[in-house]
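Forum: Protein Structure Q&A
Topic: Joint prediction for protein chains with partners

I've read a bunch of threads here and the consensus seems to be that you should model interacting components together rather than docking separate models afterwards. I'd like to see that in practice. Below is the full input, 734 residues plus whatever partners are listed. Could one of the regulars post the assembled result?
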Amino acid sequence: MKSYLFSLCLVASTAAFGAEPQPLYLDGSQPVETRVEDLLSRLTLEEKISLVHADSKFSTAAIPRLGIPCRWMSDGPHGVREDVGPDTWAPAGHTDDFSTAMPAGICLAATWNPDLGFSEGEAIGQEARKRGKDIMLGPGVNILRTPLCGRNFEYLGEDPFLTSRMVVGYIRGAQSQDISSCVKHFALNNQEFDRGTINVEVDERTLHEIYLPAFKAAVQEAGVWSVMGAYNQFRGQHCCENNYLLNKILKDEWGFKGLVMTDWGGAHDTGEAVTNGLDLEMGTDKKYDDFYFAQPYLDGLKSGVYPMSGLDDKVRRNLRVMFATRVFDADRKPGSINTAAHETVARRVAEEGIVLLKNKNNLLPLNPEKIKTIAIIGENATRLQAHGGQSSEIKAFYEITPLAGILNRVDRQATVTYAMGYDAPAASPRSTRPKAAGEPFSAADLADRAVAAARAADVVIFIGGLNHDIGLDCESRDRKDMKLPYGQDELIQKIVAANPKTIVVLEGTMVEMDSWLDQVPAVLQAWYPGMEGGNALARVLFGDVDPSGKLPATFPRRLEDSPAHALNAYPGMNGTVTYSEGLLVGYRWFDAKSIEPLFPFGFGLSYTTFKYSNLKLVESDGGTNGAIVTAQFEIENTGAVAGAEVAQLYVHQDNPGVQRPEKELKGFRKVFLQPGEKQTVSIALAQNAFAFYNPDKKGWDAEKGRFKILVGGSSRDIVLQSSYSLAETVFEKD
Ligand code: BGC
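Posted by a regular:
Agreed with the consensus. Here's the joint model:
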């Protein structure tokens, strides 16, 4: 099938125009809009219709007579997914669809390094081009509202500002490679439970302050060319056919000029989709000709039910994305795949995203010269994770597991033993773990062997956590609770009793740790660190690199501490989930209710120490980047090794006229420092850093009065503070 499709594309790109002068749309020196109008004017009604719906799982049809090639889409967002189809979800069985598996989105967010976001996007963009893709289905930027959401691992955490900064870097990098990113899922897809039907109710302020900023930044700052609607409903209307979200906010208010596509199967009604802002229908469970935007739309256009101008607008948007990504241009970037440079990006994202949560008595980093025996325990030490989680899974070019990474690093300087410790029964057919000969062992047998291995070793590295099986960190379902599965809590306690020098490494998203955290000296949160993850982890464990990741989401001590669960506002009742916590998502809730989290938002330790000093506020006139005030302070590496610190700036309003969160992240900077080195950090704040969304005025109000500028190494470690006053209330339209 693949060769057939490719030959069609070849035919397409060599369309002949005889003696005619070169049509305007093929002239790369013409402005995009001129090319769009010229090509639009040459299309028949049927050809236009063919551009607004799929003709396979991940493509739209070619129009050979005009040289329009088929358009290929691919998931996203952690690399270029293996090919499926064309008409089924079964893998196509290609041998050339291995690609670089980047760490999961939550790990990228934990780097707090937008430049790395750019590098990751750029690498994925290059791989997409090499694989012949035009639109990459990512990044995913839905806010982490509940720890249980099955797709939290794909997204960028709980904070709208952090999410926005990371997404802009990623999209700019990806789109620099002549492909379109497709930011998803617009909007409010914050749970997988009943994702296709659940109706979300949220107030206007919360919508604008918490759930929309990353999408807005993707559109207005990164210039994203495609947006994917969400499966769920918002205020009673499906998000892929939601007039308020798509027409009003995205297109009218934000000025989005690209295309809106459905999530796969996200369209429900031709009329709604036609009028409410959808431009491209994908993945409907029907024959392609029966898609809502195929024959039914064509019939409605012919009979005058739908205006031709509406179709032209959709086609224009589709064509605009094609021209913007240089589909018709001979010098479109060709891309590259599985390069050493891409591997380096994957490893760096993992190294900078792994978070050191605890390090009592500096047990870490390990010194291989002083250790004779290391016991590695845990099923995740050998589990391949990249090809899991559903749509974001990657057929990795290779994958260094934690065990392999540690073995590579130790390089026979110490004896390494391995015990699985617990069994993770394959709950999903996609589970990749091969069974060992003689399995299944009993849980007691596995635990006994692990304890014996722990007792015999100088140091234990337990590598557990979650995986991508359905019901854990996996699309289409949420977790049932926030507990470690497979009896790991009990096992960790037994292991640490046998050997107190136990380091716990957790893969996956957040879990409760109360039952063993006090007894364990060192804990690392490794997320899903991608195909270079094992090497990255080993480099962190042995101190080749300083851990510099910071949590992009609050880790609650127990599920009931987090807002949606405390308020019983998850997973909804009678088909509707009401976000009754409003603005108090993540740390905003923990601050407001004075709840001690297990680990706070922005937290992460290092092998060195940093001293913050000399906070100064320098006022300006809003000229440069709209900055009205710039916070300047110094950070010094006061320890013995090189390291990186993420300095965070939060804003607090004194005596606000409306409810304001206790503090909100409005700036951050990752600083790399040699021992003894000191740097001055400047973080500029625009008017918007002080503003709240005023639904009556449909814009942002920054109230006259005093604000505190809070600077520190986490949301609960503020070490510098100063005050800033706004003399007048100022308003900015959305
Ligand atoms: C997911 C999307 C994905 C699409 C195509 C859907 O199930 O929600 O994120 O891009 O499938 O695989």
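Residues 75-76, 137, 184, 263-264, 391 surround beta-D-glucopyranose (CB under 6 Å).
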